[in-house]
Amino acid sequence: MSQDYVIGEKTYRVRVGSGEAGAFDVAILERPQEEGAQVEARRFSARIVWVEGNTYALWLDGKKYLGQVVSGPEGDEVFIGGENYLVVPPQKATRRRAVAAHGAAKNVTPPMPGVVIKVLVGVGDRVEKGQGVIVVSAMKMETTLASPRSGIVTRINTCVEAQVKPGDVLIEVEEEEGAKDG
Amino acid sequence: MSQDYVIGEKTYRVRVGSGEAGAFDVAILERPQEEGAQVEARRFSARIVWVEGNTYALWLDGKKYLGQVVSGPEGDEVFIGGENYLVVPPQKATRRRAVAAHGAAKNVTPPMPGVVIKVLVGVGDRVEKGQGVIVVSAMKMETTLASPRSGIVTRINTCVEAQVKPGDVLIEVEEEEGAKDG
Amino acid sequence: MFEKVLVANRGEIAVRVMRTLSEMGIGTVAVYSEVDEKALHVLCADEAVCLGPAPPAQSYLDIEKIIDAAWRTKASAIHPGYGFLSENPRFSRACLDAGITFIGPPPRAMELLASKTASRRTMAEHGVPIIAGAESGNWDEDLLKREAEKLGFPVLLKAAGGGGGKGMRTVHAASELADAYSAAQREAQAAFGDGTIYMEKLLSAPRHVEFQVLLDTQGNGVHLGERECSIQRRHQKIIEETPCTVLDPELRATMGEAAVRAARAAGYVNAGTVEFLLDADRRFYFLEINARLQVEHPITEAVTGIDIVRKQVEIAAGEPLGLRQEELRPRGHAIECRIYAEDPAADFMPCPGTILALKEPVGPGIRVDSGIYAGYTVPIEYDPILAKVIAYGENREAARRRMVSALSGYAALGIKTPVSYLRAILEHEEFIRGNTDTGFLPRYFADWKPSQELVLEALVLAALAPRVRPAATIQAPSPDRAQFPSPFQTLGHWRLGET
Amino acid sequence: MFEKVLVANRGEIAVRVMRTLSEMGIGTVAVYSEVDEKALHVLCADEAVCLGPAPPAQSYLDIEKIIDAAWRTKASAIHPGYGFLSENPRFSRACLDAGITFIGPPPRAMELLASKTASRRTMAEHGVPIIAGAESGNWDEDLLKREAEKLGFPVLLKAAGGGGGKGMRTVHAASELADAYSAAQREAQAAFGDGTIYMEKLLSAPRHVEFQVLLDTQGNGVHLGERECSIQRRHQKIIEETPCTVLDPELRATMGEAAVRAARAAGYVNAGTVEFLLDADRRFYFLEINARLQVEHPITEAVTGIDIVRKQVEIAAGEPLGLRQEELRPRGHAIECRIYAEDPAADFMPCPGTILALKEPVGPGIRVDSGIYAGYTVPIEYDPILAKVIAYGENREAARRRMVSALSGYAALGIKTPVSYLRAILEHEEFIRGNTDTGFLPRYFADWKPSQELVLEALVLAALAPRVRPAATIQAPSPDRAQFPSPFQTLGHWRLGET
Predict the structure, then answer these.
(1) Between C221 and which of C139, C215, C295, D136 could a Cys-Cys bridge form, CB atoms 3.0 to 4.6 Å apart?
(2) A161-174 pLDDT, tens per residue?
(3) Residues D16, D169, D252, D292: which is the catalytic one?
């Protein structure tokens, strides 16, 4: 049985087989999308015990880890070795990438939930890539959001004191005709 | 809507209605089996919020309790005000009482899981009520179990080093013909 | 002693204050905004009063509503915690007028200290050294530029009305002055209800060393030693420790004496913190007095064994301090790490959200002051501090290692926290050597990213967990071993002849 | 220093020892029996070795298997915890023979002390006062009777091979002697592998006061003050505190000096506990030396700031103690309550079972040393100790109140614990006054029953909980507030024109 997962930018294929004495034999392949380029990243003899709640004890080639796994809206949230990892099944990962491409590259969207403090531009303004266009406050810290590209502000979808969240497109910036981003 | 529960020796009927502003109006009646003798023990205006896991915040007439509730094999195990309570639905309570009557009154059964250390009597022995008949050890502490009545040992269902648990009848004691317990 | 005290705050500090109150046999009243109905401080209190909508101005900063809540619940004193109204003299006066004891300094001292500028002047008069700076009630671009050039860049713009890194900006060139000023001004207004800004010369990488002082109404005053708070990111303390690695007993005594003198100069009573900057030549400068319980007070509690909140309550009730300077012997070493809701992989952006799972470290010498729990949703409206981890050890290295262990076991899923960042700081060789100053993080951690070394291990865990996860975890844990059936189960079966 | 240490124990003490080892950067190896596969100490260790079946003789008492496990995992030292093999000189010798460091006293001292009778004699020779008693290797009914009558009833039968209340019986009349002897003998054999019994005159309601000592291989030795352990049920300590309310500095110094002298007389090295009985006239008598880490060591850690396990490891590694008696200044007050798996409503019957829910107290000054977790099944084969709650306070009353608060928040469902009993003891007026002696519990708590005052409240909670309990708690907490959707959710919808 094999299943694909995305962590960060990389895709992994995980193959789980039966090992000795109740252990699992787990093989991990990197970048399985390009079938020709599969690389076996690692093979583990794994033993796992559910402890309680979201806590698991995991032995990989004899080395023990005490970890946590919980399903979140974006994928499995995993805590192991003192760090958090987001392990995303590929169908979610695809949408995530699409969103990132759409939201981050073309429009201005807040990275965290917050409240709009100040709008720094108006419709029709010409802005440069990296220019601050709107100030958002979350948890009492202000962040100035920059335009992701040079162009003309075509639409402002928010106003001061509005509550906004990641994915909300606050300000739309269109490339000028004939111009191309660097 | 009303439901019966047993705590300890007493049976209570709980009636839950809607109160003001999302609160519940809870009336508790004591001993509802004898319909004529119902007594309203207490009436509460109750607000409850689930916090996490088994933890609940409960406000009774404005007084706040932080408690725990979990379903156990014998009923709902409840922690409130620093003490544990076993809240038993009546169908379970009936069986529980029957068991207690059967196990405790007539035969020798261990009160906790343990290991048999020594059998102090043999089949055919005459024993007095309260006489030690078998020694059981649990968690390294020894307990001597006593015969629940005077009579003749008719059967020994266990042996030294056997693992035993509550409900197991270890030794059966029959009343002598013509004799009656005091 | 008070019978009931209202805690005019939220989060970890409200929970921590209520713990001591409960231990003293004092009833506790929480106040909360509509988004905080299930906040931990509400669940911990004996009683709770809803103040209104989420924005602080309509809830935690609304003096009238809070006084009213105290009246309605018959609380005879109010503990303000830190932040919010804690250093607001109008609040302290309003309490006084309402016949409610404010657990903190008297209004007049607060009025003086609430103005960081006025307190600078008072300290200078009493011979406590201060940093060169400039004040104005009417800053404009020209004036900002003139004063900054007089002091020489870089300069620091600071809120006259409060501390904690809010409304503070470092400015390196005249061109940045106007923007920095308006941002600082807005932040200060939002945080403290006062947008006044002053300017100070920026010292090059000093240490931030503060002294905890306690003064009672009878005129007794002591200090409880120092806290070294140089590990700061954007003027926000994130790791504190005591003792400071560069203080010897002599300098400690000198600074401690200056701290108590500074507090007395301000007419201070109750617990307070006198902040100093300490430069590389071991010269120290008065920064400000924080007229409240400090976020990092637990490390002082760890090395002195004194419950500072209890002392606050006792002092407010008119009891004598009962401590003498020569008998106070801090012992061992303590470190605090602050856990904020922020993403260390994305420039420490604040990250509110729902906590899906939480496991806080425990163990000898570990204390966690927490305002969160699994299932709790961190709101966007308030300070991002979630919890503090405090580690005590016999010496600095024992405390540091204990903290590393504790952080390795701090699991919060569903939100982002800086735990791995904090651990990396604690493992940095210059931190290990005790070479900390306020330039530490910009110098060594500007480009830090989470190491994410166990990607493959995380993958295996996620892939295998569903294979061993029980169907319904909470209601009926089903461990591998057979459970002992309860008496009625066993005998029920037995009687029915089923087994 | 050792690279890896095997902990030859289970439960809370194994977990606690491993914490310190980890903080010292030392790898940890757990050993476990088949029923302990999911025990907390196994989950906490870096590595774990299964010893075999559940009965102690085939697992935790099997010297050969444990030495073998150390060899296989390349552990260079073994920490024995308390109980099991901790005071067994054969084990210590076997370690020595295998080239493994035993973290504890040298075999010769253990051999002397393992025999409570031989150590009594040694102490008497060194001028440490002992209680009148009798020994024999060949007890029979006659001899028992003769010696008991010589001492005068009541007498105490005690195991020569170990302490902790195992194999101990109080005998009030000659007729009980034979039964008491055989029960004590069996228990002693099971617990220590040695059924030898000796007899002592039973003092009337003395205090049990013990001193923690530390001695290194270079001949340095100190005591860390006393622990008062008079609150005992059936010779089993259940509440301990330090300092003892009746010791003044002079008596403390005298007893502490006697404790170090006693340890030196026995050739003792490492951490040990010298137990004394203290009578109403403030005379003290040597009882025994516990040649191991004591269950109640955390209260000494709380008032001295010293990690005793760390000291044990350092001493075993040959490092000097680094402590001087005159510099040791215990501060404040600490209390420990032991949480056993037992039913206070049913004569404290041991109650193994599955823990359905567990919430351990947290907060400033609270430490919980625990060997359990929610979902864990407490096995029948071992000691019923589950956890210990330790509370520190500036003075006895602060510590006592903190402990009451902590116990009020100790929720363990699915098993029985004595938490409400412990709280009742702490709230008893004679306890509050500090009037504790070994007769305290029989005198005031013989007929104690849980108060069960909140029956109706418990009923309401059980009746209403299902109405607000979410369907699936673990996977997706659904708090009252709307969650912030993640970026892809929001934008996904937005792009599809669904909102």
Answers:
(1) C215
(2) 888 888 788 888 88
(3) D292
